[in-house]
Design brief:
The chain is α+β, with helices and mostly antiparallel strands. It has two domains: about 5-270 and about 410-450, 2-methylcitrate dehydratase PrpD (Orthogonal Bundle); about 275-400, 2-methylcitrate dehydratase PrpD (60s Ribosomal Protein L30, Chain: A), CATH 3.30.1330.120. Helix content is about 55%, strand content about 10%. It has 23 helices and eight strands. It has helices at about 5-15, 25-45, 50-60, 80-90, 105-120, 125-145, 150, 155-170, 175-190, 195-200, 205-225, 240-245, 250-255, 280-290, 310-315, 315-320, 325-330, 330-340, 350-355, 360-365, 375-380, 410-425, 430-440; strands spanning about 65-70, 75, 95-100, 265-270, 295-305, 365-370, 385-390, 395-400. A hairpin with a 5-residue loop joins strand 7 (about 385-390) and strand 8 (about 395-400). Helix 5 (about 105-120) packs parallel to helix 8. It is globular and about 70 Å long. The relative contact order is 0.14. InterPro entries: MmgE/PrpD_sf, MmgE/PrpD_sf_1, MmgE/PrpD_sf_2, MmgE_PrpD, MmgE_PrpD_C, MmgE_PrpD_N. This is MmgE/Prp family protein. It holds the Pfam family MmgE_PrpD_N.
Length: about 450
């Protein structure tokens, strides 16, 4: 990219020209895994009260159908369907993560691309290319900011995902590069998502991704009809980065290695249904249980990267007493205490009965936290757990990269297991196997109807 060329134009040229034959086979396989697990966790989220409320709102007004609301026989206009499905995919905080970008790209891009492809009756190859294009853009926007969205009280997944969803929908519509650039420009004006809801323990955070998917499809539709977006909506003096995070973002990170260094391959499997900042601590807690079975910790110190502070640590009094199961997903003391007592945590730990367990509550009172300014720890979603007991030497473990990360690796079977566990909330064994087979053959499907 030259100094004069807008970043949006370069990203648009990449996306508009992308075909599945241009994508390395391992990256395509990773994208299929991402589609599979996103649909799985989305199905698991369909019964959540937040998702039910969004679905009722969408179905209460007359609109053209054409795109499926996951887990139901209902259809809606593509932007509305994408909003419901993306909310469902994120509501359990079980959706996979691009670590460097700090974004849940799949939970925005897969619902947006699938809804747009369904309404357009696009083939599987076009849908898969749209997913990869949208994930690449979303992840690069997040990585260019290096966790600075969170530091400004913003939700990176929705701020970046709105733009990525616009790209994915534009690719589904086979728009030329100038129109894709317009879609990016339009989407930047819709990028939003403040994380005060996390501080207060609310579950509105999931709707951020729903709105991002909704706005992205509308941005692509408007661009298709000739609405122009600002050329420097990303990198201008009043563009997305300047407006939302100010200084400190990397222009080069937006486009360097585009089409060669695939960010889709950097989306990591998320094994625990809670905030990504807590996964390294859960890994460490599980290691402590294995190494010192039956031990009773006296004092537990959590050392977390600085960007995690206002997500999982503050206000500390609220984190020690999460009011709802959703709030517990962002409570460092709750998740660590649960993991120390039970091992790997799952969806069952985020229910009212689990939240009321006296053993978890008692152990939480022994926990404190410290912040670590190491940028590498933040980049890898790492953390350190330090435990002192009545007997024996203090125990500590620093986990630079949690389970499922690119560095730790995840076996293809891990993605399938996660899909099966999540999708079992809605689909029986035969239906899960059938859907899995169709996603595996995604590039060969002639229309969305087969999926």
């Amino acid at each position: 990219m030259t100094a004069e060329e807008p970043a949006a134009r370069r990203l648009a040229e990449f996306a508009a020209g992308l075909r599945t034959q241009d994508i390395p086979a391992p990256v395509l396989a990773h994208a299929r895994d991402l589609v599979l697990t996103t649909i799985g966790v989305g199905l698991a989220g369909t019964g959540h009260p937040m998702v039910a409320a969004v679905r009722r709102t969408v179905l209460a007004r007359p609109a053209a159908g054409g795109a499926v609301l996951w887990g139901t026989p209902d259809t809606a206009d593509a932007p509305d369907a994408a909003m419901v499905n993306a909310t469902a995919a994120h509501v359990n905080d079980y959706d996979d993560t691009h670590a460097e970008g700090g974004v849940h790209a799949g939970a925005v891009i897969v619902p947006a691309a699938l809804a747009a492809a369904q309404q357009r009756r696009a083939g599987g190859a076009r849908f898969l290319a749209a997913v990869v294009a949208g994930v690449e853009v979303t992840a690069r926007l997040g990585a260019a900011a290096s966790h600075r969205f969170t530091g400004r009280g913003l939700h990176a997944s929705s701020c970046c995902g709105t733009v990525g969803a616009a790209v994915a929908a534009a690719v589904c519509a086979d728009l030329p590069a100038p129109r894709v650039a317009d879609a990016i420009g339009i989407a930047c004006s819709q990028s939003s998502g403040v994380i005060q809801t996390v501080v207060e323990g609310g579950d509105l955070k999931s709707l951020h991704l729903g709105w991002a998917a909704h706005a992205g499809i509308w941005a692509a539709r408007l661009a298709e009809q000739g609405v122009a977006g600002p050329a420097r909506a990303l990198d201008g003096t009043h563009g997305l980065f300047a407006a939302l995070i100010g200084e400190g973002w990397s222009r080069d990170r937006l486009t360097h290695g585009l089409g060669r260094d695939w960010e889709t391959a950097g989306v990591i499997l998320k094994p625990y249904p809670c905030c990504q900042f807590l996964h390294a601590l859960i890994d460490a807690a599980c290691a402590y249980r294995r190494e010192r079975p039956g031990a009773s910790p006296d004092r537990i110190v959590l050392r977390l990267p600085t960007p995690a502070r206002h997500v999982v640590c503050e206000p500390w009094a609220d984190k020690l007493h999460p009011r709802t199961p959703y709030a517990a997903k962002f409570s460092a003391p709750y998740c660590v205490a649960a993991a120390l007592l039970d091992g790997p945590i799952g969806l069952g730990h985020f229910t009212e009965p689990a939240l009321a367990r006296p053993d978890i509550r008692a152990l939480m009172t022994r926990i404190g936290y410290e912040l670590d300014d190491d940028p590498e720890l933040a980049r890898g979603y790492g953390a350190e757990l330090v435990i002192s007991g009545a007997t024996g030497a203090p125990w500590s473990l620093r986990v630079a990269h949690p389970t499922g990360s690119r560095e730790q690796g995840a076996h293809p079977d891990d993605w399938v297991r996660k899909y099966d566990e999540a999708a079992a909330h809605v689909l029986d064994v035969a239906a899960r196997a059938d859907l899995r087979a169709r996603v595996t053959a995604l590039a060969d499907l002639s229309t969305w109807c087969a999926l």
